[in-house]
Amino acid sequence: YALEPKTVYKFVITDGVKSYSGASFIPYEATFTTSEVLTSGQTPLNVEFTKVPIPGTQQKKYSSLAFGPDGKLYALRLSGIIERFTVNPMDGMLSEQQEIRTLVNKYGNRTAVGLAFDPASTATNLILWISHSSAGLEYAPEFDGNISQLSGPDLSIEKLAITKLPRSSKDHMANSLAFGPDGAMYISQGSNGSMGDYDGSWQRIESLLSGAALRLDLQKLSRVTWPLDVRTTTDLTVINKAPTVSMRMPDNTYNPYGSESPLTIYASGVRNAYDLVWHTNGQLYLPANGSAAGGNTPASVAGTRRADGTFYNGPVVPPTTSVQVQNDWLFRINPLKKVGFYGHPNPFRGEYVANRGYIDNVKLPANMGADINYRGAAYNFELNKSPNGAIEYKSDNFAGALKGKLLVCRFSGGGDIMVLEPGSIVRSSQVTSASSNDQIYDITKATPGAGTEGLVGMSGFANPLDITEDVNTGNLYIIEFNWNNSATRTAQITLLRASEQATLDGITSVYPALISASEVVGTPESATKNYAVTIANTGKGTLKIESLDLIGTDAGEFKVKGVEDYKTEEASLSTLSLSAAKEAKAAKEAKKDKKDKPNKVIKIRKNSSITFNVAFIPSSKGVKKAKIQVKSSKNPLKEIELIGLATVYEEFETAAQKSDSLQEDTTNNITVSRVATAPERRETSGLARTLQVYPNPSSGERVQIALNNFGQQEKVQVTMHDVSGRVVQTLQLVTDQNGAA
């Protein structure tokens, strides 16, 4: 379960924790206090998937998934091999696995990521586009990115369409491909480095096309010779004089700013978006990986041409080094607006300030804000989540609960599928121009697959990299990449089979089932012991407690504390009754206040719990009994039995007073100890001292004790303990002339 709200915890590391080499950690302790319960305040998603590994896909490094117009699933491996599967429409399982080796037969092993079917493609005339680079994720060549078109029977015909796209020395490259509503191809092109300037880790400067979303106009591409070489210059003098028409710079390198250029910059400063999604609402969403710590940002150069056609004339931006780690973002691109900037600096495009300025890079002057063309983010994933593969869910499963929402793979932090809901999942009539307020398309609700409010079947993956949907069934297919080749995890394709309408009711679990309390009559309430009661939700949805009642003849001898902290205004919750006699009064008062006070209910999230206290405050001695009843929707009645032993302190007693001196519960223990011995005592030779308790066992009624074989007029102390070892009553007795009492 989750940690309890408003509770102090201690975190302890001992030297028993060891590194892989066997070295002990330095002992460490820290305390922290949890906040109040935080919830989304919205109805949980009523969705559920069942995870099924696909046989034959284990220990393979897949990079992209897509359904073809023939209804088959295509899985691209990082090496460039494509696997094609037939899909069973009944259970979603894959069969008839076929390898398509067109790319590797021509180029050898590759690093292939993007996979997209051409809108003109049909079941009998497949046209598939793939982005690929040289094999390996270290020491890669600089301009190494390519886009190929596969067609013909079994996709056996390959044509190299684009070559010399930028590539980092590591794993940033030409990533995923997606076709937009205008028929153009959109490419998520990774950055060459960490934060825009050369650094010791990436050891590569940016280029004119790196760290961006690119647009490829297939009509213009069809009018040029293939492959189109898009290598760009790093000479600012040449860039600043870029022709407005020709696709070639004066030095014959590629010009993305010419009107004849097939490949252009659609969004600038998108650091490393693995995937991109054109949504039904008309917006382009890109989950992007932020920089790790240690990156460098460039110094500004006045007069540099920018992606929107202007020239930099902003404030002087100093270079910075070893910048702190950056957040991961979901960016949204509005096609009605001119090209914008999304936070990753690039000195060859006149962009120098990372993200929001000083907020995200404290090495900058404190008054420095974001670039004037910075468009902001639709959602903040925060640090180290590595959001990668993404789709818009389109089927009507779960009564449409997921339809129109974005599903994003969180590769590292989370290891799950996150559900993001735009404020509008359709085109808004209020957004008609570049000047319209378009924030309605930003994310208004986020539901993680993992965590206490997580979704069934959408967490616990080994580095989920990409995702696709069978829109006919609503089933999902996930790539588990297992980046570090963990021996306990498996790289594979996993089917997430959409369950029938999920029953996501909470399930009530209460503990303990029995509380045995003991107190001395007259003890102030502040000094009485609190006994914890926990109500846990072990179901799949939110648990709603309909009533929580303290009942029984002796209910007035007990008190429930802390329940009010968990109540939220909503449907009715019956009043806690302190005794049967007070129920009528409480009901009358509740009815009287109903018009003025909103009713309240207790809600418990999935995999969470609440804890409150019960105190025993007896008004008279004896055994007291009551119950706490917990009623919740679609759950059996749950009860906690309360038994209290109320005792009184009694003064020195003689043997004549002993007959009604003790009362105990069946779980208590009685011990005897000698306090003092009178000089004239007489012990019975050879006989051991004895203490007798009767009736034994006792069912809760009064018990009697007898002492034998003690000294004459010997002082004896008899002590009663409860099951926890707590003293509940102590008597001082004096034996008679025969050593008995």
From TrEMBL:
<protein>
    <submittedName>
        <fullName>Uncharacterized protein</fullName>
    </submittedName>
</protein>
<dbReference type="InterPro" id="IPR011042">
    <property type="entry name" value="6-blade_b-propeller_TolB-like"/>
</dbReference>
<dbReference type="InterPro" id="IPR013783">
    <property type="entry name" value="Ig-like_fold"/>
</dbReference>
<dbReference type="InterPro" id="IPR011041">
    <property type="entry name" value="Quinoprot_gluc/sorb_DH_b-prop"/>
</dbReference>
